[in-house]
Amino acid sequence: MAALTGSPSTLQILPKKTLLVPSTRSRCLFMTSLLRPSSISALTSMQKKSSSKVVALLLSENDSHRGDVLHAASSMLSNCLSETHLDQTVRGLLSKSRGKVRDVYDAGDHLVLVTTDRQSAFDRVLASIPFKGQVLNETSLWWFNKTQHITPNALVSAPDRNVTIAKKCSVFPVEFVVRRYITGSTDTSLWTVYAEGIRNYCGNSLPEGLVKNEKLSANILTPTTKSADHDVPVSPDEILQLGLMTKDELDEVSNKALALFSYGQQVALENGLILVDTKYEFGKAADGTIMLVDEVHTPDSSRYWIANSYQERFNSGIEPENVDKEFLRLWFKEHCNPYEDEVLPEAPKDLVCELAWRYIFLFETITNSKFQLPVSEVAYYKLYFTPVGSGHINFLLSQEPIHDRITRNVSNALSSF
Predict the structure, then answer these.
(1) Of the candidates 72, 35, 26, the residue with the CA atom closest to the CA atom of residue 51
(2) For the chain, which domains are there?
(3) Is 282 helix (H, G, I), strand (E, B) or coil?
(4) 18, 338 in Cβ contact below 8 A?
(5) Are the C-beta atoms of 392 and 32 separated by less than 8 Å?
(6) Gap between the Cα atoms of 32 and 29, Å rounded
(7) The SAICAR synthetase/ADE2 N-terminal domain covers which part of the protein (predicted)?
(8) For residue 294, what are the contacts with CB-CB under 8 A and spacing of at least 6?
(9) Average pLDDT value for residue range 253-271
(10) Strand 224-225 and strand 174-182: pairing?
(11) What are phi and psi of 369, to 5 degrees?
(12) What is the spatial distance between Cα 18 and Cα 27, in angstroms, rounded to a whole number?
């Protein structure tokens, strides 16, 4: 490490003067600098310029942008948000439930949903992907805002880049999957069941002669029951027979799901992408309003393909260019049995970083905005102490741990309710 010295206009890097042992929690470095008080503003200015260089990455198709993201992802591999414990750090949270990707906390009338970097498929966690939680959360926020003309949603606020605070509601135990293409590699994917000879799936009659990745004649609904272990395909008639929803609820949610998907297809195609399939979850608020919950049109809940190369690759029998987690699924299927093997191989680091890039590429492409990469260097500084009469200032230079940042932001948000 090094210390900063010089006048406000001529800051220089000097060898470190003092290094104290940091706590593992904050990973802080105490350094003595020769800065005078008047130099603080210069340090602040320098940090802002450095930060903007790192995070202001605009959407670009050139290799330089992809390289920047891959480098940033590689540097964050050991700092992913794989687990949270806000029930231990935020006052007022009543309990925690751990999903495959999200940690959900009960806050009375609201739920605090923390989107982690955990990557799930085949009903289990496969890896942790840098920036993934932030990408999913911010992608959903964008779509929640854009789809309010179709359906209300449970969003209340987003106090942190990984956090959504939502209205508490009774979630229907059904996931509404909408598809336009026959594809996939999981047990419940349309291509898997079709290849096994099934021609009536979730109440949909499928014609003979379809091939993988082919476009269907219309959008179709293929619901599944929600389960902690394994989702089970179910038809609309079975949903009613099992008492999972009333007919009115089923009709309303089905119409909303199809309308959301149609709108998502339109937005995706306008930006050079194909929304292949996706899943939605809905709940009922205390006043009876049916609302969209969880996430919407993220690369975790959806498949996206590059539009301009789809037809040529399909005609050649080549897998479409995808902008989702399908290529990671395929890697695991080629190297193990992800459903039955007790221990899975570790995903290659270059594959993990590539997935981080694809998720960010999707966010930037859909939203036409830049993705703010978290600063992986010194995030902020604090005045530690000033020895009287010494003319020196000691600074605490620190990268704020992700969990501390989330704790701070969630605590502030809940205190305002």
Answers:
(1) 72
(2) 78-371 (3.30.470.20)
(3) strand
(4) no
(5) yes
(6) 10
(7) 97-343
(8) 102, 113, 171, 280, 281, 301
(9) 98
(10) antiparallel
(11) -140, 170
(12) 15
Residues 156, 293: Cα–Cα separation, whole Å: 11
Q: How far is CA 7 from the centre of its chain?
A: 43
Q: Are 342 and 24 within 8 A, CB to CB?
A: no
Going from the C-alpha of 67 to that of each of 60, 73, 74, 81, 214, the distances in angstroms are 11, 10, 10, 22, 33
Q: Tens digit of pLDDT for each residue in 7-40?
A: 333 333 333 333 333 333 333 333 333 233 333 3
Residues 113, 158: Cα–Cα separation, whole Å: 10
pLDDT per position as a tens digit, 132-174: 999 999 999 999 999 999 999 999 999 999 999 999 999 999 9
Cα four-point dihedral sign 315, 354, 372, 293: positive
Closest CA relative to residue 393, chosen from 42, 141, 22, 65 = 42
The answer to whether 18 and 29 are in contact (CB under 8 A) is: no
Q: Which residues contact 208 (CB under 8 A, 6 or more apart)?
A: 199
